[in-house]
Every structure is written in C-alpha cells, then in structure tokens.
C-alpha cells in the first residue's frame, strides 16, 4: 500500500499547501494509502529560520516504513528505503553562494537531500526543473518524472466583492512570505517611485523576521505600499480577483503557484523573466525582466486579458490532473 510522508507545518508555506492538496486529492480519488505526518519545529534566530530541517530529520529516524511505494512530499522526509520524492526545487545547489554560508547551512542541506537523491523516482514540477536536476545533480532522465503541481480551485475563483478603495489608483497585489528570493525589496522600490500605483502585499512573516522588519520600515515611508499580513482564503481571493494586476518578481522558483492562483481568479499576471514561468504560464502571462517591470505592469493593466480566458488556462493545473499523474506513477511500482 502507498505510504505518504508529509510535513506538519504550523506557519503558511508552499510545502504545507502542497501536502494538503495531495492528501485531499488522494482521499477524494479513493486511492488507498497510509499518511505519516512529521512535525517541523522551526525557530527564528537573528531574523532567520533555524532548526526545521534538523527537527524533521531526527523525527523521521524514529519511524519505520514497511509499506511501499513510499512517497515523500518534501526531500527532507525521505527515509533510506524511500521510493519516490518530490523535489520542489534544487535552488540551494544552483545558488549555493546565497543559501550555504556556514557549516550549519551545509549540514542542513546535506541532511535534506541525502536520502532523497537516492530514491528510485524523483518528481520535478516542470520540464525545466527536470533538466536542472539532470545537469546539476547528474541524475539520469529515466529516474525523473515531471508532474505539474495544482492549485485548489475551490479556494481560487473570481470573486466580485471588491475590497479596494475607490481612489483612482491602479491596484496591484502580490503574495508571499519574506524569503529573500521573493525580491519584494525590488518590487517595493519600483512601486514607491510611482504614486499612481498602489501595491497590496499579502503574506506571513514566517521566520524571516529581520527581512520583514526592513521591508516594513521601507513601506512605512510610502502611502502606496500596503502590507496586510496573512489573511483568510476568502479575503485573499477577493484582493486577487479585483486587482488590476497580480505582480510577482521572485528571482528563483521551482514552480510558482501564486501567479496561477491569480489566473484562476481571472486576474492578469506580471512575472519576472524566469524559465519556469515561460514554461507554465508563458502563453498567458506578461513576462518581463526586472529593468522593464514597471512598463510591463502598465501595459498589462491597459490591456487586460479576458477573465474567462485566464480562468480556463488555470484549469490545466487542476488537482484532478495532478493526482491522476501521481497515481500512474504509484501504479508503476506494483
């Protein structure tokens, strides 16, 4: 019988949402499986996350797994006899200088990927991601399956109740925590220089307290940058649905769900020029380098795409599609 090992995470995160969707989808499909949750315990030291990977690794060692195939939904939860692991990204390998700065970082990432890279099958969210894994980690193509991630269409759909003030501004929205790779520093700087634009940032601090403090201090100097913090799914949907555009300037992504969630709400999207975005939403989104990002925003707002077209495109990333592809992989182990 299939065993799913998933992280139990208190704070909002992409991995938490991924786990929730996979478990929800498998249960809805009626596919027999066992669920094993491993709690992640993480604290903030000097404004940065600490201890999460180590806590999960230690907790995993206390478990034994005998039913196969075993699918680990994050690499750090891969046991030695694991069969399948989802590699959401390999950014720490590609941008090691940014992520591995001391012995603690080096040890943490070694623990995170040690067993994962020895699994029989690795899941990449994109074809571009698969190419990166092959190139950077020297893993053969036949060990890597591409399964596009999904969004929860029960949470993201057009909502006509407008939360924005009627002030004549161009209302923009962005979503995410304060992980440095999200590059909200650049986005805030762009918005601060154009008083006609009004940006609403939605998302938790998580363990990025130092980074959040700096950005909050910067934003406090400008009336057109609003930091709303975490909000309910309902309010998030309303802000995204009624924005003139969803903007996302992240400089490193394994997949990037927020822009697709915006499409599902019928909102035009502007994203940074990354290969992953070209692959998954290049046909429908405005893609721009950082230097011309403001121009891209203004063009997008002036030439909004049809809402129905955007929503229909988002259906490519349905939970049913993702689960069906995973089930095919699970059945191949029988």
Short description, anyone?
By secondary structure, the chain is an alpha/beta fold. The chain is built from 14 helices and 14 strands. Helix 10 crosses helix 13 (307-314).
What does this structure look like?
It is a single chain. With 334 residues, the chain is of the alpha/beta class. It is 40% helix and 19% strand. It has 14 helices and 14 strands. The chain has helices spanning 14-29, 52-61, 91-94, 96-99, 103-113, 127-137, 184-192, 209-219, 233-242, 257-264, 275-281, 293-302, 307-314, 319-331, and strands spanning 2-8, 33-39, 43-45, 48-50, 70-72, 84-87, 121-124, 144-146, 170-175, 197-202, 225-229, 245-248, 269-272, 286-288. The protein has a six-stranded parallel sheet. A six-stranded parallel sheet has the order 11-10-9-12-13-14, with helices on both faces. A two-stranded antiparallel ribbon has the order 3-4. Helix 1 packs across helix 14 and helix 10 (257-264) crosses helix 13. The longest helix is centred in the N-terminal third of the chain and has 16 residues, at 14-29. It starts with a strand and ends with a helix. The model has no long low-confidence stretch (mean pLDDT 90).
